[in-house]
Design goal:
The complex is a heterodimer of chains A (372) and B (247).
Chain A lengths: L25 H29 L6 H13 L4 H19 L3 H46 L2 H40 L7 H16 L2 H14 L10 H27 L2 H9 L4 H31 L11 H12 L3 H34 L3
Chain B lengths: L3 E10 L2 E11 L4 E6 L5 H8 L7 E6 L2 E2 L7 H7 E4 L11 H11 L5 H14 L15 H13 L5 E5 L7 H16 L3 E5 L3 H7 L2 E6 L2 E6 L1 H6 L4 H12 L4
Helix pairs in contact in B: 3-4, 3-5, 5-6
Classes of the chains: A mainly alpha (372), B alpha/beta (247).
Bound molecules: adenosine-5'-triphosphate (ATP) and magnesium ion (MG).
Chain lengths: 372, 247
């Protein structure tokens, strides 16, 4: 039996019970109604400008109807506020019947409804401002960046040139995966024998992370043929572009790999070595497979960066999508063709991000479920 | 002659001396238990024997052959001397079966089929055959530790080093693991184990060593050490263990 001797009694210092009153609903609801009204006003101007830009001549009745319906839709966030007021009334009634718990419950629901209304209103305002920005000044922005006829005209040329970007990106990515890993492993070679190689690896990453990618492209693109370097001077510029991007991005990816290799718990090394595996065997079968899994997301980030940097290869005289779009754009004195390139980059990047998300989920699910 | 001989072993981390002259012999079919307070150097000693740590001075002999110093084939040493740690033993990216067959196929020169058959047999013995295709994350801690022991046994080691392999387990999982070690002991496997399970040490050990601040302060049969400890430090340690309810 343990003897209890209270040394200190904290009951007097306890927190006071939480406020018994239900939280206020009406002020929040009022605020959300005001925001809804402001939203509708903003949307009205945005839609009016858009209409003026799109239809210099009066449009048909159907089009007008669409615009009216769109504007009416911006009033939709009013519905949750109605719900909020209803909850507020229920809360008040419950309070009169002494049902404090029920009153708090309804008050909380009411506030949630009012906040929902606010959330949607804010989103609509953001969209409306965007529309207003694009169509303001009689659609100056839209006419500069989004002219449908120029987009249609540039589309096929730009897409064909984009194939160059794709080739360069894929070629560089494959090489980067290999070179980055080699450098990362060089950097963690053990012992005195490994020191010179470790030093080289550090030097490499330091140097190529420091030099802007566009400068490497320029130097490799023109320098190698200018200096008449054997073999390299005869390579097509697209291959040189792949080499240049590989040089730059291997430095980043080596660091990513290194972080992954370092993140594997020391005891995994111990476990592998204690089974009799040699250093390279442990590295290859135990450490690298676990590290690679962990670095896939940051690796893909670097790859997306690399893909975007293929837009720089124009400096070495390769006609890529961006260069092509500028050619078309300067011919028609409009930036819409360049917008096409931007859209294409967005379109190829988003699926990659989703793909990696799914891969990570699958990997985790597999390791959780424990059967293959 | 003893299978494992340790003579005047010294080990430091930086300027801190951890092992200050350990001498110990383990004969074939003998089970030696290392006990001692946390930080006394039990894990360090076991890691030195497996050459996972380099030592300052002293000798370690396995089967009469000195395994310290340069030029020793550590991969051969480690095939004869298996080790299981407290935790993080299994490779999380491999199934149980792959964990067990990796070393035998890779360095033991055994065919994949033969290694898998052997692994299944070993798993069968501990009732984990149906877990062969699972990943370690899907196993309980106790199951993981038993698989780790099976993995070490798949290399047919001459001596097995066990480092507090039940310390990270919930009490109800400890029993299964200890039962497995007990069977290995009965089967005649030479073992050197660091443990906080005094009751178990008492039951299986032919020799118990009490480590204190990097030295073996007292050694003897389980009976001698637990019933009639000579050193004051040993008495204090055992008293603390009894108070904690672990004896
Ligand atoms: N890698 C390391 N670097 C520096 N000091 C270390 C390292 N590993 C262990 N030590 C120190 O060595 C001493 C002995 O540690 P060891 O792990 O051998 O103790 P132990 O007897 O196994 O303890 P426990 O029962 O808690 O496992 C401790 O003081 C510890 O702090
Ligand atoms: Mg320990």
């Amino acid at each position: 039996m343990i003897n209890v001797t209270p040394t200190q009694d904290t009951y007097d210092a306890r927190l006071q019970p939480p406020q018994a009153q239900p939280p206020a609903v009406v002020p929040l609801t009022a605020a959300s109604v005001i925001v809804v009204i402001l939203t509708a006003v903003t949307s009205f101007y945005a839609l009016a400008w858009l209409y003026a830009y799109m239809y210099p001549q009066p449009a048909g009745a159907f089009t007008k109807a669409v615009f009216v319906v769109l504007w009416l839709a911006t009033w939709l966030p009013l519905l949750p506020t109605v719900q909020a007021l209803r909850s507020a009334r229920k809360s008040r009634n419950a309070l009169q019947d002494n049902g404090i718990v029920i009153a708090r419950h309804h008050a909380a629901l009411g506030r949630e409804s009012a906040l929902t209304s606010l959330g949607y209103s804010v989103a609509i305002v953001v969209l409306a401002l965007l529309v207003a920005f694009v169509s303001t000044n009689d659609g100056a922005i839209a006419r500069t960046f989004l002219r449908p006829e120029f987009i249609a005209q540039a589309w096929s040329d730009v897409l064909r040139a984009f194939w160059v970007n794709v080739q360069v990106a894929i070629g560089a990515e494959v090489l980067v995966l290999v070179l980055g890993l080699v450098i990362a492993i060089m950097r963690m070679l053990p012992g005195r024998a490994g020191r010179p190689l470790r030093f080289l690896a550090v030097l490499y990453t330091d140097v190529f992370r420091a030099i802007p990618g566009i400068i490497v492209l320029y130097l490799v693109g023109f320098g190698l043929s200018l200096a008449e370097v054997p073999f390299f001077k005869d390579l097509p510029p697209i291959v040189l572009a792949i080499f240049a991007l590989t040089l730059t991005y291997s430095a980043y990816v080596a660091e990513v790999y290194r972080a992954g290799l370092d993140s594997i718990h020391r005891s995994q090394w111990a476990a592998a070595r204690s089974l009799g595996l040699s250093y390279p065997q442990a590295l290859r079968t135990v450490i690298i497979p676990q590290a690679v899994r962990r670095v896939i997301p940051p690796l893909l980030n670097d790859f997306i960066g690399l893909q975007k940097d293929t837009a720089l290869i124009g400096v070495m005289g390769v006609i890529d999508a961006f260069t092509q779009s500028r050619l078309v754009g300067s011919a028609v004195f409009n930036l819409s063709p360049v917008t096409v390139v931007a859209i294409v980059f967005v379109l190829i990047t988003i699926p990659q991000s989703r793909f990696v998300d799914r891969m990570i989920e699958k990997d985790q699910a597999r390791q959780r479920s424990g059967s293959n | 002659m003893s299978y494992l001989q340790i003579r005047d072993l010294h080990k430091s981390y930086g300027s801190v001396q951890i092992l200050k002259g350990i001498s110990l012999e383990v004969a074939r079919h003998e089970v030696v238990c290392l006990i001692g307070a946390s930080g006394s150097g039990k894990s360090t000693l076991l890691r030195c024997i497996n050459a996972l740590e380099t030592i300052e001075s002293g000798e370690i002999l396995v089967d009469g052959d000195q395994v310290t110093g340069l030029g020793v084939n550590l991969n051969v040493l480690r095939r004869n001397v298996g080790i299981v740690f407290q935790s993080y033993n299994l490779f999380p990216h491999m199934t149980v079966l792959k964990n067990i067959t990796l070393a035998p196929t890779m360095i033991g020169g055994i065919s994949k089929d033969a290694a898998e058959q052997r692994a299944i047999e070993l798993l069968d013995k501990i009732g984990l055959r149906q877990k062969a295709g699972s990943y370690p994350d899907a196993l309980s801690g106790g199951q993981q530790q038993r698989v780790a022991i099976v993995r070490a046994m798949a290399m047919d080691p001459q001596v097995l080093l066990l480092d507090e392999i039940t310390a990270a387990l919930d009490p109800e999982l400890v029993g299964d693991v200890l039962e497995m070690i007990r069977e290995l002991a009965v089967g005649g496997l030479t073992m050197l184990l660091a443990t906080h399970e005094m009751g178990f040490a008492r039951e299986v050990a032919s020799q118990v060593c009490f480590l204190h601040q990097g030295k073996i302060l007292e050694r003897g049969t389980a009976e001698e050490l637990f019933e009639n400890p000579q050193e004051e430090r040993t008495q204090q340690f055992l008293k603390r263990v009894v108070t904690a309810g672990r004896l």
